């Protein structure tokens, strides 16, 4: 009788045992996908925040005026006009205080010049003449005190210590006090007169 070779104890050399061992092993594999669904599920969609319905005003004054429209500009016009009228009335009141003070101190040849739009340092100029140093110093001291009482505040005075020309700065009104010879020499009223401006414009 023909004898077959005995199989090894491990069974690796026997063909039947090899097939059986391979079939008994189960390999778990993940299902193959194209990756579209998994990537979409993992990807977080951006959050959309709905802002409340608020009107954002532009930044520059020009853009604000354009956004406001002509009605807002027309509404502001009377307000600006009222402010201009109030400023002019305040200026007239200060001028009246100055003129009254100079007249009380016997100042001569009082002249008022309107420099609005013509000079950057003031809107009006008042020029007056005093006959002596003591008179001019007294006029400056009285005028300074009356302007403070009228609410002008700080009123600087230059040249009050015995000079032929004293300047009182009341802000929108500047007062010049001269001796007769100094006033004739400097001729401020001629320098700032409207007639001189008209002559230069004609030339």
TrEMBL record:
It is found in: Cytoplasm. GO terms for cellular component: cytoplasm. One of its GO terms (molecular function) is ribosomal large subunit binding. Residues 1-64 are annotated as: Disordered. Its main location: cytoplasm. Transmembrane segments: none annotated. Keywords: Cytoplasm, Repressor, Translation regulation. It holds the Pfam family RsfS. One of its GO terms (biological process) is cytosolic ribosome assembly. It comes from the Bacteria. Belongs to the Iojap/RsfS family. Interacts with ribosomal protein uL14 (rplN). HAMAP family: Iojap_RsfS (MF_01477). Functions as a ribosomal silencing factor. Interacts with ribosomal protein uL14 (rplN), blocking formation of intersubunit bridge B8. Prevents association of the 30S and 50S ribosomal subunits and the formation of functional ribosomes, thus repressing translation. This is Ribosomal silencing factor RsfS.
């Amino acid at each position: 009788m023909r004898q077959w070779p005995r199989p090894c104890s491990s069974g690796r050399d026997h063909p039947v045992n090899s097939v059986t061992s391979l079939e008994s092993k189960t390999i778990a594999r993940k299902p193959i996908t194209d990756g579209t669904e998994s990537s979409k599920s993992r990807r977080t969609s951006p959050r959309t925040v709905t802002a409340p319905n608020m009107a954002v005003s532009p930044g520059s004054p020009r853009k604000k005026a354009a956004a406001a429209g002509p009605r807002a500009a027309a509404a502001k016009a009377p307000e600006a006009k009222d402010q201009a009228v109030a400023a002019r009335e305040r200026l007239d009141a200060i001028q009246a205080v100055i003129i009254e003070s100079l007249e009380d101190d016997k100042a001569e040849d009082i002249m008022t010049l309107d420099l609005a739009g013509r000079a950057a340092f003031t809107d009006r100029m008042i020029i007056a003449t005093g006959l002596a140093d003591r008179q001019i110093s007294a006029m400056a001291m009285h005028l300074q005190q009356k302007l403070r009482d009228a609410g002008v505040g700080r009123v600087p005075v230059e040249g009050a210590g015995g000079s032929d020309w004293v300047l009182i700065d009341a802000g929108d009104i500047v007062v010049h006090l001269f001796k007769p010879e100094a006033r004739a020499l400097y001729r401020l009223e001629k320098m700032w007169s409207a007639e001189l401006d008209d002559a230069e414009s004609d030339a």
